[in-house]
Amino acid sequence: MTADSYQDRLQGSTLPLNAAARRLDVHGAVQGVGFRPYVVRLARELGLNGWVRNAGGHVIIEAAGTPESLNALAARLPAEAPAQAVVRDVIVTDLDDRMARLHGRRGFTVGASIARSGRRDFPPDLAACEECLRELFDPADRRYRYPFVNCTACGPRATIITELPYDRPQTTMAPFPLCAACAAEYTDPADRRFHAEPVACPACGPTLRWATSCDTSDSNESTASGDDALTAAVGTIASGGIVAVKGLGGYQLVCDATRTDTVARLRAGKHRPAKPLAVMVADVAAARQLARVSDVEAELLTSVARPIVLLARQGDRHALAAGIHPQLDEVGLFLPYTPLHHLLLHDLARPLVVTSGNRSGEPIIIDDHEARTRLGQVADAFLTHDRRIRARYDDSVARVVAGTGSVVRRARGYAPAPTPLPRPAPRPLLAVGAQLKHTFALASADDAIVSPHIGDLSNQDTFTAFTDGLAHLSTLLSIRPTCVAHDLHPAYISTQYAARWPRNRRLPVQHHHAHVASCAAEHGVTEPFIGVAYDGLGWGDDGTLWGGEVFLADLTAYRRVGRFGTAPLPGGELAVRRPARMAMGYLFGGERIGAGMVDPELAASFAGRFDEQEVATVRRMIDRHVNSPYASSAGRLFDAAASILGLCDDVSYEGEAAIVLEATAGGSGGRPVDTGELPWKVVSSSGMWVYDPAPTLMGLLRGVTDGTPVHRLAASFHATVTAVTLALCIRAAQLSKVSTVCLSGGVFQNRRLVTELRAALGDEGFTVYVNETVPANDGGISYGQAAVASARMNL
Amino acid sequence: LGHGSGGQLSASLIRDVIVPALGDATKLAGTDPRGEVHGSGGATETSPLEDAAVLGLGVVDVVVSTDSFVVSPLFFSGGDIGKLAVHGTINDVAMMGGDPLGLSLAFIIEEGFPLEDLRRITASVGEAAREAGVPVVTGDSKVVDRGSADGLFITTTGIGRRLPAARLSAALARPGDAVLLSGPIAQHGVTILSAREGLGFDGDVASDTRPLHRLAAAMLDAAGGSVHVMRDPTRGGLASALNEIAQASEVGVVIDEPAVPVPTPVAAACEMLGLDPLHVANEGCLVAFVDPGDADAVLAAMRSDPAGRQAVRIGEVVADHPGRVTARTLIGAERIVDMLIGEQLPRIC
Ligand SMILES: [Fe+3]
Ligand SMILES: [Mg+2]
Ligand SMILES: [Zn+2]
Ligand SMILES: [Zn+2]
């Protein structure tokens, strides 16, 4: 498209006597959100002449008119911008010498996009808007039941962009030439589809296809297409089938969420025995049939990002198949976000399991061929289409804790929106993140762009998804990193990846420092703070494993002032998968800090539950230091507590024991019952305050023996960790006069703990921050690394 | 953390400390970085990081290897330090295509070491050497003060004549090569660990220590030029050997995890101890990278030798992910198999 191809239809204004001309450079998320048509409408309303165009990642406006109307343009531009646009910066330059030429254009038009180097932003995918949905369900509309309807206010973005600037030929819509009707909408500045790059209709756009799994030939031969394909999928799901659906950012497995047999079959096929499955429901009202939904939660559910929202269950327990969320009173619900999802929900009129199309541990599948070969075992059929998914974006997961939304898995709808850095990166930077729940971040100037959730890097396909994703994002954003921030853990694949960089370009960042820095940075905390990092395991700067840490920190450095007592992990990672081992580790080999005594009889009574040979071997392993590394971990203590209470001896997914412990305590209700604390002790040991968990665990064991209800003990355990943390923060504050506390690490996904701790710390006068825009778990590590590395480079 | 566990740390000790200190003394003349064999000129032709060195002496090529043996306990199910010292060095010579001709043997004995044990161990050395047909041709022994050594250390050096068909180096693996394994893994490491730490598994498991030179000769006999790499995966286990080969050859290696034989009691012990069998030491098996066209012939030759009766094909070389080893799991996922770093350290957060 060239500038001249857009003929101005309106009468241009005449040159006023006091005319002026200005150029406005608009930076931020201003492409792919209907920004140019918005500028055209506004400029015409103000009687300005000139043009607007995309240049690289930003937008340039050159306009001539009266100074008043030019002022009005600059003032109203950010204020009235489309909902999905983020105007970060407007730079205004005088162009008086070009005034006559600009004015001579008589009217305001869209100019041709120009490629530019330099930092570019582009928007995440947007949920289908109301107007498009009205068309979708209007039998008279030419896009009636067309699953790819979209406009400038909605539709795919990050998942289809192959190159910037964001223009149709640089998306996976390129192979679909516009029909006359769509072209007219696309070129009409007054139309809401003006320059909607993925605009499409049944005549010219992508087409649905249906294929059964038996049809293993990879040819595009399908048994149905278009609305027939949709009808076939609806029929299959209604009769208990599992359909692999090509979604927005990857394939999804979809089935009836009310059928126990189907859900069991899905779990077996996905090799996912217990991890909760997300359920899609038609609207907030439908969500309220299944879960308690507060106003804040409803807002989150209906936000354009449309994350899976973790909610407290309510209503009929049998409204969903039992296998959806075993043992938990929390359920992950989300609302349809593509027209295709809307059609499925509409036609099936029941809650649907909509879960990532992958095998456990692998990245979500985006390739049609891979989907056939890898999902053929679990899916009965495939509902696909002929638009390529360029970038992988899994569904995001969020929850509300104490009235504030927090993202748990950050992907579709959120990434790749920039996250501000309190200390700008003086040089372009790559932060490679951790190992599990992996993300990376690219930082330049004031922002970090955190990649969508990638997964467990120990899987080769996940690693490839990381390197491919890095190449793609780095090209699109035009960020060429010259240094790399990484974890200290030598066995992380991300650390090994960073190790290939020259030594003087590497910035190592301690795992828990990255955690607490991620929290501080997203809240703009640049002054010293108390960092509480509770997670499973991370590599300490002393070569041992940490995970229950209290730091005095700022963005550049930290001092370890408090920690949890250590215990051996008999069998290493095996002890992570088997909380029973962790309990034995604490009972038979916990650090002797002096405060606590393990009662051998109680310990033996616990161990009596397990196979004698295992207990004997574990005790021997601990005594002889055989594959039993020590860790000062809070997450592992939660595991041990869950096993001691008989709630979980083995986990099938990360964090399961702690989740079950929280659920048992009634965590998701958000209304803690005061059950009192178990015994605990914090003692000073070699310049640090150390929490000795032995008395607490003894308290649990005694409670179990005395027949105290398990839910009360689980609640007391949470109260104890709260009390201990408060004590450690008070001691840290006495050392430093710092009263800001940043909580981070996977353990703080525990809603009950966060709620109690916020209240307790608040009562003592602390200002408390928790992660909101990046995950508290290891998905936030890359952002924390970027924040620390940038701050250090500013020193 | 120890540099002795045979993974990345030992590799870095050799690479960063020992080789630089020796400087040019590791390659006085004519080294070919790809380990190509010249066959004349009296120079070493192989990297100091291979199992053994090949020296061209004009008329014949000679393969030399040396190793020190420090093991606790000295006696274990399936063998003792004497046997290990004989087998270990014979195997290193054999892995570079050498037909072992003789061994030199040096004892370092701590004062007060029981004479009876020394006799048993020496007898075991003799028996192992006789059984292998490789004589001990020279030797030495020193007694050091109490505390200066832990009981008994043995150093053996082996010398062999390179078999004419052998063109072997860790750097010669090529995409398409079949990866063959001579037999079950992880037996030695589990046996030693169990015996040393009193874990109680030694009743069911035994070290696999055995000489592999006849097996290696049979393989080279079957398809000499097609065998590109041979390694005995000792310390650091199969995973470390495969990683070293993948890095040296700049290729990717994919193995089928379920195809790798692990005896049931060994697997049970590993499961109980949280060990990955791929990281556990062996003393009696070898892994070979063979041209796919001759893989079946080599496999048949392996199976006809007692040391290779349970030989299997466990994977192949790919052009993808150079320098990296992956394992296809039971459910079809492809997990990255790392070199052992120190101990097996949890990466789960
Ligand atoms: Fe962590
Ligand atoms: Mg050697
Ligand atoms: Zn729309
Ligand atoms: Zn059309």
UniProtKB/TrEMBL annotation, chain A:
User: Any idea where the YrdC-like domain is?
Assistant: 227-413
List each copy of the Acylphosphatase-like domain by range.
21-112
* Protein EC: 6.2.-.-
Q: Does the keyword Ion transport apply?
A: no
What would be an example GO MF term here?
A: carboxyl- or carbamoyltransferase activity
Q: Which biological pathway? A: Protein modification; [NiFe] hydrogenase maturation
- Provide the alphabetized UniProt keywords: Hydrolase, Ligase, Metal-binding, Transferase, Zinc, Zinc-finger
Keyword Transmembrane helix among UniProt keywords:
no
- Give, as one word, the top-level EC class: ligase
Please give a single GO biological process term from the UniProt record. protein maturation
Q: Which reaction does it catalyse?
A: C-terminal L-cysteinyl-[HypE protein] + carbamoyl phosphate + ATP + H2O = C-terminal S-carboxamide-L-cysteinyl-[HypE protein] + AMP + phosphate + diphosphate + H(+); an acyl phosphate + H2O = a carboxylate + phosphate + H(+)
Q: Which residues does the Swiss-Prot or TrEMBL record annotate as the active site?
A: 36, 54
Concerning PROSITE patterns, the annotation shows: ACYLPHOSPHATASE_1, ACYLPHOSPHATASE_3, YRDC
Q: What family does the entry list? A: Belongs to the carbamoyltransferase HypF family.
What is the name of this protein? Answer: Carbamoyltransferase
Q: Which organism is it from?
A: Phytoactinopolyspora halotolerans
Q: Which gene codes for it?
A: hypF
